[in-house]
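Take a look at the protein record below and flag anything odd:
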Amino acid sequence: MRVQLTKNFYLDEFQCKDLSDIPLEVFDNILELADNMQVIRDILKRPITVNSGYRSPEYNDNVIGGAKGSKHKLGQACDFTVKGLMPNEVAKAVKMLITEMLISQGGVGMYDTFTHYDIRGTKARWDNRK
């Protein structure tokens, strides 16, 4: 049985790719992240695919670009794509939603094939596109 977090997001979408259990101490972060992702989906009116949500410390250590202080390890980060939009378009929309205080302040990163958003509570921006 799938655990539904919001209208369009399920817990398994945020589960680590190594299928490890999500620690209880990060569950509230995942709920908050899912709520913010739901706002993004509702505003953009397009399906979202979560590429990476929670990462176990072991999995994160083996991911290319998995930073030691990764917000993924805290259940606070999501790498995702939005159907029909490029990462720069998604990042622009996410930054606008943060500015309008419709979603939590946090990190927004652009990559070649996805956008990163996290709920760290402080502003962070980067562009890792080639």
User: Anything to note?
Assistant: The chain has a mean pLDDT of 95. The chain has three helices and five strands. Residues 47 and 83 are 6 Å apart (CA to CA). The helical segments are 24-44, 57-62, 87-99.
